[in-house]
UniProtKB/TrEMBL annotation:
One of its GO terms (molecular function) is oxidoreductase activity, acting on NAD(P)H, oxygen as acceptor. The keyword Oxidoreductase applies. This is NAD-binding protein. It comes from the Eukaryota.
Length: 331
């Protein structure tokens, strides 16, 4: 009712302000007041008003209940796609989406079959009290660099679930330390093994977001897309020679802002997340083989330590949920 009221008044308020400007000398102050009263501020959430707006509408004899965790932070019935979710940060993020109420979380990663760790998380969620029948983890093997495959995969999820709401692009790889003057074209692209950094971290991020967003648009419920960038997209860690990784993550930051501007009118929010050093299989590959490096990195951080994957649970839930509906194109 409230949102209808606001939308209804959008045009009249504009006319009223325009008319008042021409006839009333004290207009600057009055215009500001009218703007405050009439300017539409978006559609109110489907579960009704919350916060002070709810207080002002409530009758004095109702017994209010808290809404912040049951509504704003809740992902009840949402469907999500998370890339790189066979392990590491992707798996941690997939788990918390399910825990926050998502009906199904589709984990996408390179291996055809998921890891033991993934199965343990799936089983744990299935046993979680109060979550029976909810929080389903699903697994689909795919390479995020394969655009056609990713789009088809998105379509499959949409067909199965009848909706798509959230996407997290956590698939990513790191290149080996390489002297910037020695970088050949091939080396600039390559990671430790064979896949290439730019193609995985940049193209793969876009293709994953496209796969999900095409379905978000199809079902028209709006959505939240979280691109996993890195602190290495904004700052350079001295001593690490990782020019392709750093460049790829800067690209992800700008991709998020670009997508945000294009997709905002469709009620699809896009934000990026830039974790600092977190101990995962990716970072273990250099922390565990270079004695003393962990201390050097820890020393350069305000908390004097690298982070744990679980320390991203809160921010991911916040960004994925209605708790962040005015957060858009941010890092
Ligand atoms: N761990 C950190 O300190 C840190 C910090 C900042 C950003 N990040 C970013 O977070 C994301 C996750 O990192 P992580 O530490 O969990 O790494 P990880 O290596 O543990 O996990 C990455 C996952 O991505 C998958 N993947 C790689 N290439 C793929 C492809 N072509 N198609 C599908 N899946 C693919 C891998 O198989 C792996 O399961 C990455 O984008 C990484 O750059 C990590």
């Amino acid at each position: 009712m409230y949102s209808g009221f606001l939308q209804h008044w959008q045009l009249p308020s504009a006319l009223l302000i325009a008319a008042a400007t021409t006839v009333w000398p004290c207009m600057p102050a009055c215009g500001a007041i009218l703007n405050y009263i009439f300017l539409p501020t978006g559609i109110a959430p489907p579960y009704a008003l919350v916060g002070v707006a709810a207080v002002l509408e409530a009758s004095p004899d109702t017994t209010p209940t808290p809404t912040i965790f049951d509504h704003e932070f809740s992902l009840k019935d949402k469907v999500a796609l998370v890339s790189g979710a066979n392990r590491g940060l992707g798996l941690e993020m997939a788990m918390v989406l399910a825990e926050a109420g998502a009906r199904a979380v589709y984990c996408v990663d390179l291996p055809k079959a998921p890891s033991d760790e993934w199965f343990k998380v799936k089983d744990y969620l299935a046993r979680m009290k109060g979550k029976a029948g909810e929080g389903r983890l699903e697994y689909l093997g795919a390479d995020v660099r394969d655009q056609e495959r990713m789009w088809r995969l998105g379509q499959t999820i949409g067909d199965r679930e009848g909706r798509m709401d959230i996407c997290i692009t956590a698939a990513g790889i790191l290149n080996a330390d390489t002297d910037c003057l020695e970088y050949t074209s091939k080396a600039f692209q390559k990671a430790y093994s064979s896949p290439n950094v730019m193609e995985t971290n940049v193209n793969g991020t876009l293709f994953t977001a496209q796969a999900a967003v095409r379905q978000v648009v199809r079902f028209g419920n709006g959505g939240s897309i979280i691109l996993i960038a890195s602190l290495s997209g904004s700052v350079t860690n001295r001593g690490f020679h990782r020019i392709s990784y750093n460049t790829s993550k800067s690209a992800v930051l700008q991709m998020a802002r670009s997508l945000a501007c294009e997709l905002g009118p469709k009620r699809i929010r896009v934000n990026s997340l830039s974790p600092g050093f977190i101990y995962t299989p990716m970072t273990a590959s250099f922390f565990d083989t270079d004695p003393g490096l962990l201390e050097v990195v820890a020393d350069s951080t305000p908390l004097n330590r690298p982070g744990r994957p679980d320390e991203l649970r809160g921010v991911v839930t916040w960004l994925a949920s209605d708790a962040s509906t005015f957060c858009m194109g941010s890092e």
